[in-house]
Design brief:
SH3 type barrels, 16% strand, 9 helices, 39% helix, 274 residues, 2 domains, extended, RNase_P/MRP_Rpp29_sf
Length: 274
């Protein structure tokens, strides 16, 4: 086996000696790195304390976690809430300005806001900016979960186990999903369509495309049915439905949760004519 390593000679030895190659040729140095035990080869044992290995002690595990995790999590939620509140306020202000100035076209309104109200223009949510989150990240994430290959000529060619697929989807992350409200106890919510920017415990926070300005809407999961699609190819997609009453968990909690079959008497209104 040839153990010559030019990297050692050229990078390590050459920086230590001006004539590294000569020293190697004279057998004064070796161009190989050897690992030797620091205790001279004597066998050593892990020291135990109170019957437990030190490396597995509770103190070591406690110190290994991020000391500022709770603070980081708190700050991230605060920043997201601030963005949502600011975006909703900016959208409402933009609509009011459009009504007062009789601006009925999106380019006309955005141009006016950019010139006269730059702060409002900068705070307006933009659907096109968040769209790649759905098309490039979430769709590929779902295709990978369900093992959908890239070159599928027809959805009928897919071999997907329905039970396993539903289990995976129940534990998946829906931030970036394009969902539509198909049915709700609140009739004003029906037909809302947008990209999920926050999958909270009790609500889906959606960024929706508007006629004049894009808006952020908070849709409660309770009493609501959502629909979404996972594209298979350019013409076909897998369609699924989410029962909001059974989805009232955070995405991080769903990942380690077992969903069991249970009575659904409390959801009979879903099949009612109302």
């Amino acid at each position: 086996m040839n153990r010559e390593q030019t990297f050692i000679t050229e990078q390590i030895l050459a920086k230590s000696l001006p004539t590294a190659e000569k020293a190697v040729d004279e057998n004064r140095l070796q161009d190989t790195l050897l690992l030797l035990p620091t205790d001279g080869g004597l066998s050593s044992r892990l020291k135990k304390k109170n019957g437990k290995l030190r490396l597995l002690s509770g103190e070591h595990i406690k110190n290994s976690t991020h000391s500022a995790y709770r603070e980081i999590n708190k700050n991230s939620k605060h920043a997201l809430k601030s963005y949502i509140n600011g975006a909703r306020k900016a959208s409402s202000t933009a609509k009011r300005i459009a009504s007062e100035k009789n601006l009925r076209e999106r380019p006309e309104l955005l141009g006016y806001l950019k010139e006269k109200h730059p702060s409002v223009f900068g705070s307006i949510p933009r659907f096109d900016q968040i769209l790649p989150m759905h098309e490039e990240l979430w769709v590929n994430y779902m295709r990978e979960i369900l093992n959908i290959p890239d070159d599928v000529p027809s959805a009928s060619k897919l071999n997907i186990n329905g039970t396993n697929a539903l289990l995976k989807l129940s534990m998946a992350d829906y931030n970036g999903c394009m969902i539509t409200v198909t049915k709700s106890r609140n009739e004003n919510l029906r037909g809302i369509k947008g990209i999920v920017i926050w999958d909270s415990q009790k609500d889906f926070i959606l960024l929706c495309r508007g006629e004049l300005v894009d808006e952020i809407k908070c849709v409660p999961k309770m009493g609501t049915i959502f629909a979404f699609e996972i594209p298979v190819n350019k013409d076909e997609a897998l369609q699924y439905t989410i029962l909001g009453d059974r989805f009232k968990y955070r995405s991080s909690d769903r990942a380690g949760r077992k969903f069991k079959s249970r009575r659904c008497d409390d959801m009979l209104y879903y099949i009612s004519g109302r």
